[in-house]
Amino acid sequence: MTIPTIFPQRLSWWRRKRGLSQLQLAMNAACSQRHISFLELGRTKPSRDMVMRLSGALDLPLRQSNELLLAAGFAPAWAETNLDAAQLAPIREALDYVLAQQEPYPAFVVDRRWNMLRANQGAVAMVTFLVGPIERDAAINLADALVGPDVLRPHLTNWSEVVRYFVRSVEADAVADATPDTAALLDRLLGYKDVRATLADLPPAGGDTPVLPMHFEKGETKLRLFTTIVTLGMPQDVTLQELRIESFFPMDEQTRAAFRKWAG
């Protein structure tokens, strides 16, 4: 999947990607269908303001909004700041606060491609128990760890159900952002053993819980957890828009007791 680099073709590509007619996009962007047609034909050059309005009408993430601006010959509107940069110190403090509040239960900060950026002690304790110690500063991708055959799968007793929902969420991300990185992640996940066959199976009927639990088991220890995903509100930076905080919560007393024990 290749996104055009020239503005008229890129605009048309995103419009069709979003399932919109020229009239629908025009209504969303508060302009005429004729103007959208001329933009897609290259007969009219957009203003910077129009590109921003089109980005909003197409519900583009900040990264893709920047790319549409560049294709039209304008500078990006949104910064992409390293999370370690000085100006993001308040954000890091907030993330660390959220992670600390989740103790003794696990929480991770990841980027859009599920690369782990931060983890609390509860997360380290769980992963260490299941798969062994983690090397300091090791590059860890939680998607690979969950879906692949050799990391969490041997201990995740309902792997098929969890992976079915997880891979579908990555598919949705790939549709939403249309980036080569997310497409590559999806291809990698689909290439793991049994994943395509699992996706082809009909999902089971809804169970007796309102959320899909994750059942981990190792030796005599059984962990029954569910997760939440939190994002930052009103981000004005590409990096911040792509951050996610995944928190794990226990679903029974045995699980709560295990994490209290690991926390000392």
Give the strand order, joined by hyphens, for the main sheet: 2-1-5-4-3
Which percent band covers the strand fraction? Answer: 5-15%
- Uncertain segments of ≥5 residues (pLDDT<50)? none
Could you spell the SSE succession in H and E letters? HHHHHHEEHHHHHEEHEH
Describe the main β-sheet briefly: 5 strands, antiparallel
* Shape field: elongated
Helix content percent band: 40-55%
Instruction: Kindly report the oligomeric state of this protein.
Output: single chain
- State the total count of DSSP E strands: 5
Separation, N- and C-terminal Cα atoms: 50 Å
SS class: alpha+beta
Number of domains: 2
CATH top level of the largest domain is Alpha Beta
**CATH T-level topology of the largest domain:** Beta-Lactamase
Which features characterize this protein?
264 residues, 434 Repressor (Amino-terminal Domain), Beta-Lactamase, 2 domains, 5-stranded antiparallel sheet, 13 helices, 5 strands
What does this structure look like?
There is one protein chain. With 264 residues, the chain is of the alpha+beta class. It has two domains: 65 residues, Orthogonal Bundle (434 Repressor (Amino-terminal Domain)), CATH 1.10.260.40; 178 residues, Beta-Lactamase, CATH 3.30.450.180. The protein is 49% helix and 11% strand. The chain is built from 13 helices and five strands. Strands 2-1-5-4-3 form a five-stranded antiparallel β-sheet, sandwiched between helices. Helix 4 runs antiparallel to helix 5 and helix 9 packs antiparallel against helix 10. The model has no long low-confidence stretch (mean pLDDT 94).
